[in-house]
Amino acid sequence: MEERADWDLAVCGYHFRTKGDPSGNGMGAAADLGFGNYDDRKSASQIPSDIEWDSDTDKDVYVTVSMKDWLWYLSKNGMSLDENPWFDPNSGPRRTLSSGNSLLDRAILLAGVSVLRCSSHW
Predict the structure, then answer these.
(1) In Å, what is the CA distance from 65 to each residue of 62, 99, 108?
(2) 3-state SS assignment for residue 96
(3) Distance, CA of 55 to chain centre
């Protein structure tokens, strides 16, 4: 997905990527413009020049791997489900560290949006 040019914003459940390092080959980022007055914003020229842009990170965005994707991964790598369970009683389902935009992740978490199934291939 990083090399593709046909996207600007990727969504997986409540995880978001903007097309910029390390998620893509563009200059994507997100900015917190505050709450409200959405109808008044009609062009990029209205964005304050001193706004802080939040680029994607590869350090703190975790995506839950679906059981189907975990089974595919095990099969592809000749691994056993008994030795590599998808669900661990102490830590829950398998998760993978992924690049994503932590500002957008926090905004969605604060809004209380439910988690949807995410593919490990995004």
Answers:
(1) 9, 14, 19
(2) strand
(3) 12
